[in-house]
Amino acid sequence: MSAARHPNDPDGPSAAPPHHRRTRAEPLVASYRPLPPQRDDAPRRRGRLRAYRPLVYLAPVLLTLTFLTVVDFARTPQDSRASTAGEQIANEGPTPAMSNPDGPTVQADGAPTNPARTAVSAELPGGGPFPTQGAGTFHVVPGTSEQIGQGRLSTYTVEVENDIVFTDGDTAFGTVVQATLSHPKSWTATGSTALRRIDTGTPELRVTLASQATARRLCGFDIPYDTSCFLRAKPGHVVLNAARWERGAQSFQGDIGQYRRYVVNHEVGHYFNNPHQPCAGAGALAPLMMQQTLTTANDELSTLVSDIQNDIAVPRDGKVCKPNEWVFPNR
Questions:
Q1: I need a labelling partner for 157 at 20 to 30 A (CA). Which of 57, 64, 275, 300 fits?
Q2: Is 327 inside a domain boundary?
Q3: Integer CA distances (angstroms), 107 to 111, 271, 272, in order
Q4: H-type helices in the chain, by residue range?
Q5: What number of other Cβ atoms are within 10 A of residue 189's Cβ?
Q6: In this predicted model, what pLDDT tens digit does every residue of 172-197 receive, in sequence order?
Q7: Per-residue pLDDT tens for 240-289?
Q8: Would you say residue 301 lies in a domain?
Q9: What CATH number does residue 135 fall under?
C-alpha cells in the first residue's frame, strides 16, 4: 500500500519507509515553506548571456578609456587649453591682441624692475581723460602712402583698439603715425630702409594704439609706470599706450606733439633691431633709443633698469640729455 502524500511534501508519494522520510523533514518547530516547482530555463538564460556578452567585454574598455581621458584633461595645463581656444578664435578671424603669445622680447619703454625703484620723471603727467579699457582687439585705420625711402621695404598698418574713445580720433592718430614715419629725419633716412603704409592685406609691421589696460597686459607692468612697447611677433607689433598718447611724459615738458613723434619712432626703432641707449653727453639731445618716457637722466634711468634689462648698461655719470624725437635730429 502506497503512502499518502502530505499536502506540504514537495517530493510527492514515495516508496521510502516512513522513518527514512522523517529524517529528511524539517524540524517541527520550524516554519517550512517549500519553493515552487523549478522550471528548466537554462537555455533561455544562456541566450540572454550570449546577447549581452559583447557589452560585458566592452564595459571594462569603455571605463578605462573614460578614466584615461579624465586624467589627461586634468594633467593638461589650463594655459595650454586656453591657447588652443585662442588658436581657434584666431583661425576664425584676426585677433591682433593675441598676436604674441610669448610676450614682449623688447620692452621698449618699460623694462621690468622692482616697484620700489621709482623716479618722479617716470610718472604720468596730469591732464585730460584717456581710455583705460578696450575690447582687446584692433581695427585698421583706413589710409595708405607711397613708398618712402630706399632699401628693404616694410609695409605697415595703423590700428586702434576697438571700443576706445580718445581726444583726436582714429584719423588724426593715423595722420601722426604716417607723417612721423615719412619724415626725412625718421628711419627712412638711413638709406637702407623703406616704408609704405597699407590698409589691406598682411603687413610686416602693425602700429597700434591701445587702452591703458591692454597696453599693460601686452607690454607688462612690472614697474608702476605706463609705457609702450614693441612685440617681436609676425607681423611685428608696436603697442602705443593711450595713457601716454594723451598725457605724454615728464621729460617732454608738456609738448605732446614732440612726445608722440618720439614714441612712434622709438618703438618702430625696435622693429629695426635697435637697442636702448643712454644719454651720451650732458646737455646734448637724447638718442632716440633712450627710454625718454621714463627719464632723460642716466642716474634715474640706472635706478629704474640696472640689473633688469640686458640690452644696455646705464652708467651713473650724472649726464642729463634734452628730449629728442628723431633718428637724425640734425638733418
A1: 275
A2: no
A3: 5, 12, 14
A4: 18-24, 42-75, 78-92, 170-182, 212-219, 242-247, 256-271, 298-305
A5: 15
A6: 999 999 999 999 999 999 999 999 99
A7: 999 999 999 999 999 999 999 999 999 999 999 999 999 999 999 999 99
A8: no
A9: 3.40.390
